[in-house]
Design brief:
With 416 residues, the chain is mostly helical. The protein has helices at 5-34, 49-80, 85-96, 100-133, 141-172, 177-200, 213-226, 262-267, 270-285, 288-310, 314-318, 327-342, 346-367, 370-383, 392-398, 404-415; strands at residues 207-209, 233-236, 247-250, 257-261. The protein folds into two domains: 5-138 and 291-346, no CATH class; 204-286 and 349-415, Zincin-like, CATH 3.30.2010.10. It contains 16 helices and four strands.
Length: 416
């Protein structure tokens, strides 16, 4: 291990990340507890004190486990890097195989398996202790194991060829390998967006056409007057894993689907579902999805260009515990440490996302009744046990949606 200036910068960034995240968590706990015994005025008629306190307890319980996850994941990161874990794993593969590309793919896949095993206790706790305690979990042990197995097989089938191509380009192209890799990743991402609704999502859930004819007629009229076309309206068996409700759009081009969780349909009136859908259509109307995809691609391009510089710097490897420079260790190192340096810009992306939510709300109340959107959102906050009183700074770092009070008051002002 050769400590250098970059080692110091990495430690400073990691310490700053941990301190900031823990501080934000404590602020969130304080904010939630301060309003524990009082429902905010705009929700008094729709949410009982008992429901409000359940949301507070649920939020605090999640924060407690997040405290542990932050500390534990940081220790694991330091063990992989400065502790020599990555270097040790890399040397094992080098001792077994001579082919550089196979070493790289094997190294990354084995790291992925170890990471899944390390995270497994937290996943088990969240699913079978935390979610059970608050009455949300519907996942069986069989489903849990099946999901892990399917995800792993899918990662092998899709990930191994992609990793091989990326590492091949890094070895073969020369200085501007990162541009070619970016083109491959961009093309692959677009392909996955197109394939996901029809071929990947059905591996984990069942999707059935919407049977409620009154609701379907209402939705068809909404789609017609907003000029939106989709590949169908489907109901997903979300209740197979959780009682949380949701709705989403998926896919690109002509291969787009509207998906409702069955748990959402059970608790909402038709007019409220129409309002939720109108909000989602607002995202498409304002091209929010397209903008997010473009920003994601530009971010990955900048990231790969930065990696293209770092991969030529021995101090990058030696300062993070790697004794032998290679493309595959560079990829892994970059992926592991970039969150420590980039977390400070999270409020910027979240602010943009919240702006999009307001725009989608404005679109929704042009095409449906605003009161229906308000009532549907309140039901979602209530049924998902979402806190109504988040801390302002915590929300800035963690929430892509406006806080409940701000959003509801914004909609009520529009109604007036």
């Amino acid at each position: 291990m050769k400590f250098n200036l970059f080692t110091l910068l990495f430690l400073i960034a990691t310490f700053s990340y941990v301190v900031t995240m823990m501080w934000l968590n404590m602020r969130q706990v304080k904010s939630v507890l301060n309003s524990f015994n009082k429902v905010p005025g705009e929700f008094v008629e729709k949410i009982t004190l008992k429901q409000h306190q359940k949301a507070a307890d649920y939020t605090i319980a999640k924060l407690k486990i997040n405290h542990l996850e932050i500390l534990f994941s940081t220790l694991v990161l330091l063990a992989w890097t400065l502790g020599g874990g990555l270097d040790y794993l890399d040397n094992i593969w080098r001792s077994l195989i001579d082919n550089t590309l196979v070493i790289g793919v094997g190294f990354i896949i084995s790291l992925m398996v170890i990471s899944i095993l390390i995270d497994l206790p937290f996943s088990l706790y969240r699913t079978f202790v935390l979610e059970v305690k608050f009455g949300f979990n519907k996942t069986t042990i069989a489903t849990f194991i099946s999901d892990i197995f399917k995800s792993f097989i899918l990662a092998l089938v899709i990930g191994v060829p992609l990793l091989y191509v990326i590492l091949y380009l890094m070895n073969a192209i020369g200085t501007y390998w990162w541009l070619y890799v970016w083109l491959v990743i961009t093309g692959f991402s677009l392909l996955m967006l197109w394939l996901y609704p029809t071929f990947i999502a059905p591996l984990f859930n069942k999707f059935k056409p919407l049977k409620n004819q009154k609701l379907k007629t209402k939705i068809d009229k909404l789609l017609e007057r907003t000029g939106f076309k989709s590949d169908g309206i489907f109901v997903m068996d979300g209740s197979k894993r959780s009682s949380h409700g949701n709705a989403y759009f998926t896919g690109i081009g002509k291969n787009k689907r509207i998906v409702f969780f069955d748990t959402l349909l059970k608790d909402m009136k038709n007019k409220e579902i129409e309002a939720i859908l109108a909000h989602e259509l607002g995202h498409f109307h304002h091209k929010h999805i397209r903008k997010q995809i473009i920003i994601s691609f530009l971010t990955s391009l900048i990231g790969l260009a930065l990696l293209g510089y770092l991969i030529k710097q021995p101090w990058f490897f030696y300062g993070l515990g790697i004794s032998e420079i290679s493309n595959h260790t560079a990829l892994v190192l970059f992926g592991l440490i970039i969150p420590m340096f980039s977390f400070v810009i999270k409020p910027i992306s979240n602010a943009s996302s919240r702006k999009h939510e307001f725009e989608a709300d404005a679109f929704a109340i042009k095409h449906t009744n605003a009161n229906n959107l308000v009532s549907s959102l309140i039901k979602l906050y209530r049924d998902n046990a979402s806190t109504l009183t988040p801390d302002r700074l915590y929300s800035a770092f963690h929430d892509s949606h406006p806080s409940a009070s701000i959003r509801i008051n914004h909609l009520k002002e529009a109604i007036q």
